[in-house]
Every structure is written in C-alpha cells, then in structure tokens.
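Example record

One chain of 427 residues, shown exactly as stored in the release files.
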Amino acid sequence: MGAGLLDQVVIAAANSANTLLGGILLPKGRFGALALALAVGYFATCLNRAIVGDVLLALASRFDGEPRARLVRDGLATALCSGLITTVVFVALWALSPSRGEIDLHQLVWLAPFMVPIMLHDTARGDYLAARRPDKALGIGLVWAGTQSVAVVVMILTHTAGAGGLLTAWGLGATAGATVYLVRERRLPWRGSPRAWLAETRHLSGWFTVTAIVAQVQVLAISFIVAGRLSRIDLANLRFVQTVELQPVQNLITALQNLLVPRASRDAAEGGPALRRRTRQLVTAFAVLGTLLVLTVWPVVSFVLVHTHKFAEAAPLALPIALQCAVYLLQVPFTAALRGMHRARLLFVQYVAFAVVSLSGLTVGAGYAGLHGAAWGLLTGSTASLICMAALYAFALRSVRPPARAVPRDLPADVPLDATQPAARYS
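Predicted structure tokens for this chain:
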C-alpha cells in the first residue's frame, strides 16, 4: 500500500513539475503556450490510459502465466500504436496551426518524439500494479523523476531553460523509465496485437472509459476556452494557481479513492445501512477538512501570489479555486460509494452534468468578468456536480439490498471487489 501511494506521488510530482517550473522560469506568454501543449499531451496520455492502462489493471490481475503475458504484450502493442498515432497528430497540429493568435500549439513539436515512451511507461505501471508489484512501479517512476530532475538542473545551470527544454526533460524521464521496464522485463511491444487487445477487452471499455474521456475533454476544453476567449496570459495565471492549489488536492483525492472504494464495495455488498452510515461519517469529516483547507490555503496562496509580482494579478483566483478544492473533497464519499455500488452509468451521468455546467459557467463568467469570472464559473460547475453526485448517490442507495449469502467475515477489508475505476479529473 505504501509503495503504491508513493508511486502515485512521484508520478504526480513529475507531471506537475512542468507547470510549476514553467510558471516560475518562463515569461507568462510562453508559459501559456506550454500549459496548452501540456493539456493536449495529458489528454492523449489519459485516453491511452483509459483504453489500455485501466483495463490492464482490472483484467490482467485475474490471470497468471501465458494468458497474462499475452494481455500485457497486446496492451503494450496498443500503447505503441497510440503513441505513434499521437506523434503524427502532434506533428500535424504543429505544422498546420496558425503562427499567430492566442491558441499556440507549436510547442507540441517538442512532445511529439516522446509520446511513444510516455504511453509505454504508463502501460508499464499498469502491468506492475496489476501484478501487485507497486515497488517496481515506484522504481520506474523514480527513474522518470530522477532523469527529468537532472535534465532540468542542467538547463537551469546553463541558463537554457525554456518551454521546449521542460517538455524535453519530461519526455526524457519517460523514455528512461520505459526503457528500464522493457529491458528488465524483456518486453518487445511490437510483438503484441492491438486488434486482439481491442477484441478481448471491449467489455471493459464501456462506461468507465467513456467517463474518463468526458473528464479529459472537459479539462482540454477549459484550456482552449480560456486561451481563445481571453489570452495565453490568462491561461498561464489560471493554470499556475490550479497547480499550486488544486492539483495537490486532486492527487490526495485519487489516493483516498484507492483506500475508500474497496471498503465502500464491501459495505454495499453487506447492504445499505452500513454504506449509508459510513458515507455520512465521511461527508462530515471531509466537510471539516474542506473548511480548514479554505481557511488556511486561500490566505496563504493569495499572500504569496501578491508578493511574487509576476502572478500578483492572479491572487483573486485563490479564493474560488480553494472553494473548488473543498467541493471536490466533499464529493469523495459519494464517488467512493457509487463506485462501491458499481454504478458506473450514474458516474458517467454525473461527469456529463459537471462538464456541461462547468464549461457553461466558464464561458459566461469569462464573458462578463474575465478570468476572475471564469474561475467562479468553474466553481459553479463543481458545486452543481456535487449536488448531482449526492442526488445520484441517494437514488442508487435505494436499490442496495443485503445479499442472500453474506460476504465472508474473513475477507480482508482492503481487497477491492471491483478494480475498475474512472480517472480523476483535473480542471
């Protein structure tokens, strides 16, 4: 459990380092272009994870020997194809996108050479976690983070840090981690069959995968709407404050979901009263945690931003984004309960409602009050999502009944009854 959580922390740190260092080292205009390129890169990576990584985690853990080895081979081959297709698309976007304007996609050319190793590394983590070897997943994660850190330090010392350099450092880290995995496990990704993978796993590519896609489309749309309706400077301000405030909370939420969903699944199997009682307790605890977070993080982040001068104009964003963090925390008990009840379709409905309301709020808020209004519009979407989530939880709870045969009492509480979980959102 500890290695798995630490692995997640390491990968999250490697990803967030791009945005954080870009905000510190680059002028705002160039940082805005970097943030847009990263949004597109994360979108492609999360699509590959929904198709390969999450499915591998849910399915490969049930097999041993040759059946499992075949699944991993086919999954790696699918990730290889995803990376190659993404590389071609990124080069085309770089070549065809306008040279002027607020939506600047030219930084994608720096990501294009590394999309194959980025997706292979993500699939490799799925392989290790499915095999219950989080220590090895942590190992290749540390290789990624270490390589990336060395490259960044070299750029800073030689005064050559730029958007392209930060993206290259990220890609080099993924390449090193993927190479260690392929050599150590003696994997050749081209030996598998993407067609066989899609045929065999299509039953797992349903609601959870669609939910992940909706979430990532929503994240990508935010970047394009802010850059298009406002400016790259505004996108830089928004993404920097989100990286400081919201992304650590999202990482915490993902870790908490990994702990709470197995327990919620067991409670749901035993009947509604246990699940209802635990969810009520968790809602109270997370309401207190969210309140404390707003009261501490908001003034601290606002004070620091004001005194950085570079991001002083982004200081008013600290309050709505801190409130958004609290709302996301309050959603955790309801999300865990719905996953524990295996109500994937309801989760999809909730994500669609969240995407529609948040993007509408973002657009309207940006039109009336610029970036400050856009941030409050996103908070409106998050609040509507919380209300929808609570209503869907209450609806789903009505259909939970005690089973005819009770769950064995000797079953460990941390054994998940359903390994399929949708990806966390970052918006």
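Notes: The chain has 13 helices and no strands.
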